[in-house]
Specification:
Strand content: 15-25%
Distance between the termini: 41 Å
Shape: globular
Number of strands: 8
Helix content: 40-55%
Number of helices: 12
Largest sheet: 6 strands, mixed
């Protein structure tokens, strides 16, 4: 059933979300989690404990500002519900959580994060993400998002929360769940990108790669749907992919290109790089994937290098050989 659902509707749902749609999964059945993970490959959520009695779930302090905006009450700090919890949910995707009893450790928040409007304290609990069960989780994909509501009985309170979640992503006044970078941190990202470009122009590929990666690490797992920050991250990943191609590491280059295309599927240069990486992996079957990547480029005939590569791929596929 899951495979049939994925085959018939999976690509449509994923595209709908990428373009700004929202999808809520209000069920605690295991099949729902399987559907979610089939649709969105980067989600690593797993099933947690089942809470058959009404249990209090505390608000995730890291996301408190956004969670309160979404669910409509500034003073909300917890909820009570019978749920099947999720484990392995990154902090920036949690709405309400429950400590499973494993000892936490405290870590200081950096000054630039402390200055962000989303963090009201200088000390937050941080620990392995597997040590919490989460009752409501939100995952951003493209300009949209999906949400898991693990209600065991799908009661009126859950219906109300789902309605508020959907309204919160209205195009007129969207609430961008997920902590964006502060201005200070984003400035460091820009500097790292400039440094990388400078090294690349001097053909110091290793130094360029190192600088680009510095910029990427500034994001961590806290990127919300801010368009400017997403585009910059996509650009960094694209640059990393190019460096890795020049270093003859096609598998790693392909992975980086695909991450960039997850954020911005229309990047022509990155589609070209993905196609080259596919071809260089040495598998004949990947030529077809390379050809499909190039076919996604708008006005492909006008992109001379990519179009010439495309024609060579066509000939190689017809001849059944992995040479371009």
């Amino acid at each position: 059933m899951v495979d049939e659902f994925h085959l018939k509707l999976g690509s449509l749902i994923k595209r709908f979300v990428f373009l700004g749609g929202v999808v809520a999964f209000p069920s605690s059945q295991l099949v729902v989690l399987k559907v979610i993970k089939n649709l969105f490959e980067r989600i690593a959520w797993t099933v947690g404990r089942s809470y058959s009695v009404r249990t209090e779930w505390g608000i995730c302090l890291m996301n408190k500002t956004y969670v309160q905006k979404i669910f409509g009450r500034d003073k909300i700090s917890s909820l009570k519900a019978k749920c099947v919890g999720l484990r392995n949910v990154p902090i920036h995707e949690r709405c309400f959580e429950k400590d499973t009893g494993v000892q936490c450790s405290n870590v200081l928040v950096s000054k630039e994060d402390r200055d962000s409007e989303n963090i009201s304290t200088t000390l937050v609990h941080e620990t392995s993400i597997s040590q919490f069960d989460v009752s409501i989780a939100i995952h951003n994909h493209g300009d949209g998002s999906i949400a898991y509501f693990g209600d065991a009985h799908f009661d009126k309170a859950t219906i109300s929360r789902i309605s508020k979640y959907i309204r919160s992503r209205s195009p007129n006044d969207p609430i961008c769940f997920g902590r964006n970078l502060s201005e200070q941190t984003f400035a460091k990202v820009i500097r790292a990108k400039i440094n990388g470009d400078t090294h690349f122009k001097l053909r110091n590929i290793k130094a360029a790669l190192s600088s680009y990666k510095v910029g990427i690490t500034k994001y961590g797992d806290v990127l919300g749907p801010c368009p400017v920050q997403k585009q910059e991250l996509a650009g960094l990943l694209e640059s990393v992919s190019l460096c890795l191609l020049k270093m003859r590491r096609p598998d790693d280059a392909l992975e980086s290109a695909e991450r960039a295309l997850d954020l911005d599927p229309g990047r022509s240069k990155c589609l070209f790089q993905a196609a080259v990486a596919y071809q260089r992996t040495g598998f004949l079957a990947h030529l077809v994937a390379a050809k499909k990547a190039l076919e996604k480029i708008v006005d492909l005939p006008d992109y001379v290098d990519a179009y010439e590569f495309y024609k060579k791929l066509e000939r190689s596929i017809q001849l059944g050989e992995n040479r371009v």
